[in-house]
Design brief:
The structure is a homodimer of 337-residue chains. In chain A, strand 6, helix 10 and strand 7 form a beta-alpha-beta unit. Chain A is an alpha/beta fold. The first copy, chain A, is 43% helix and 16% strand. Chains A and B meet through helix 4, helix 5, helix 6, strand 2 and helix 7 of A and helix 4, helix 5, helix 6, strand 2 and helix 7 of B. The structure holds a DNA duplex (30 and 30 nucleotides).
Chain lengths: 337, 337
DNA sequence: ATTATTTTTGTAACCGGTTACATTTTCGGG
DNA sequence: CCCGAAAATGTAACCGGTTACAAAAATAAT
């Protein structure tokens, strides 16, 4: 049952039916005719074929959410928050959401126009963490494709972006720690190659150290192989064995922090009495760790929502050029520091 | 740049280019011609328009994942697990994934064919928890639309379904508890109207009681208003105040259990020494609760993956009729019971 | 060289909508 | 009752692919 069938059965032309279907043009059709068409459409349960509409209008009314292809994605509180925001943002809109997963192996596959055409979407939101840097590089430099990057900010980025400054979050942590009197502050780093975040958090830590007068020296610095609890645990174990611990540790994310706390607990080192621990990202679990973990929260939901809204503005050409939205992280003080 | 442009520039017809583009038919084209086309396509970065292909082939190569519209979805370990499985399942396939969110208010909007057409998808996976029952009802009785339901099993369901038996999980819990010597076993129920799960878990609990010889009586039965930690906490508080506690409690899901434990801890009632607590669903948090929570795990990832694979079989007509896959839940014994 | 086969290519209709433009209807005013 | 403007409708091309069928080219057989 297509639009021509409906037209024939109603005794009008396809143009009239098409106009009837378009809320914008509905009142170009005489009331009487509207009723006739309406009756037939109901009778045959007709609904227009979205694919045909998309082809004809050259608009898919669909946006793509690009993530790395990994089941972990939905299990990470970081993505969770962003995705929740995206869902919330897209809910009231007449857009569909397509989830485009990219495996890191597909590095060459990095033409943005191609992605748009091959997935039938009008715009893209990139949740890039751990994602092939080639692609992200291209996104960062393109301004002619409706795309919004989340959190891969650097001054050279030229595309639209929604981000939350790492520097200011790290600064908040460091001044919190120094104001509490901690002098020997260490850091459990993540692997730098993985993301800008990792690099920024470390670099901000170093510069905070300079400003606030604590030294960022070798034995107070450990790099974990991955951003995960187990890695934090193992690395902290190592650190404890070597001895020479600082009196506060900033962990590059909550997973590392939770792992570290577990290692410390096992070695009967009390948190925060003996060592203060701070995480980053504020996962929901932090409320129930022992002790509850002080951390920095990015307003992930708000960011996800903003990303959708921004993208839709670009797609609908309500706005043009690159839009940049900066969000502020918030220090959540609990008991671990 | 469309297929006609490419054809013209190469000096061949659109049919030839189209054949070249289709891996199935590529070798119908002479090698020499292939090279020419290939050169032009590369030169102009042509890639076919997926929307047009979809219209013409009458296949979108896209499946829809239907969930309630709520940011909580991604934050629930239940959905998380399923979605992780769906991602994993769809990864190696040439299908796209569209996330279709349905708000409960849209109850009338429940024609399956309509959903397929209006979202340009070939099949649907329903993650139905808390979803408008009208729609689910329709799915359950339709067998002519490629759709897979997850976990809304009842004997009257006629569509394809992937599910994990509640009854057998509850039975495992109850026999674990009785074998540990608990005699007075209570239950913290969820609200029954919300889902079949809620009803089934309760009914299985009752029948286990009958078989294993513990009484399911009034003061050992409390219903929480929602399936959430806070509700479990509040209700347990109430229960403690009233006194007359059982020596083991089966909580209808982990959230309730965790809330209950918190309430008990506050009242200096020791788990499991004074009261044993068991949850259901085995969220990741259970490992780090205090004490770690005994629970029942559904193989959510496997189920999500199976749902995708089943759906794709239906869509591609590799299989027809309704497919039912039953998974077994697993009792995860930790320290709380 | 001619004919029969097999390969390769081309033409044109089709998928199901939208829309510019032309045409017909309707209706008020003279 | 006729004219002209406004309102309503219709025609046909177009979006960018696929594919049945026809035609042409290449190859094999005689």
């Amino acid at each position: 049952m297509n639009i021509r069938d409906i037209a024939k059965k109603t005794g009008v032309s396809v143009a009239t039916v098409s106009r009837f279907l378009d809320p914008q043009k509905k009142d170009l059709v005489r009331a009487e005719t509207r009723e006739k068409i309406d009756r037939i459409i109901r009778k045959y349960h007709y609904s227009p074929n979205r694919t045909a509409q998309a082809l004809s209008r050259q608009i898919n009314n669909t946006i793509g959410m690009v993530t790395p292809l990994s089941p972990d994605v939905v299990k990470s509180p970081y993505f969770e928050g962003l995705i929740a925001g995206i869902i919330e943002g897209i809910g009231p809109l007449a857009y569909d959401l397509k989830w485009i997963m990219i495996r890191n192996e597909d590095r060459e596959y990095c033409n943005l126009h191609e992605i748009l055409r091959e997935h039938s979407v009008d715009g893209l939101i990139f949740l890039t963490w751990r994602l092939s840097t080639n692609l992200v590089d291209e996104v960062q430099h393109r301004t002619d494709v409706p795309a919004v990057l989340i959190n891969d900010y650097s001054p050279s980025v030229r595309c639209s972006i929604v981000y939350c400054e790492n520097r200011s979050g790290v600064k908040k942590i460091c001044s919190h720690l120094t104001s509490k009197g901690y002098k020997r502050i260490g850091m459990l780093k993540g692997p730098e190659y993985i993301s800008l975040d990792a690099r920024e958090r470390f670099s901000a830590f170093k510069s905070s150290g300079k400003k606030m007068g604590f030294r960022v020296r070798d034995p107070f610095l450990y790099e974990c192989p991955r951003f995960e609890e187990e890695a934090g645990y193992q690395t902290m174990k190592l650190w404890v064995d070597k001895g020479n611990l600082p009196d506060a540790i900033f962990c590059a994310n909550d997973g590392l922090a939770i792992g570290a706390i577990r290692a410390l607990n096992e070695s009967k080192i009390k948190v925060p009495k003996d060592i203060a621990i701070v995480g980053y990202d504020d996962s929901p679990r932090n409320e129930t760790t022992n002790p509850p973990l002080t951390s920095v929260r990015q307003p992930l939901e708000a960011m996800g929502k903003a990303a959708v809204e921004t993208l839709v503005k670009l797609v609908s050409k309500e706005a043009k050029g690159a839009i940049r939205l900066k969000f502020e992280p918030e220090l959540i003080v609990r008991e671990s520091a």
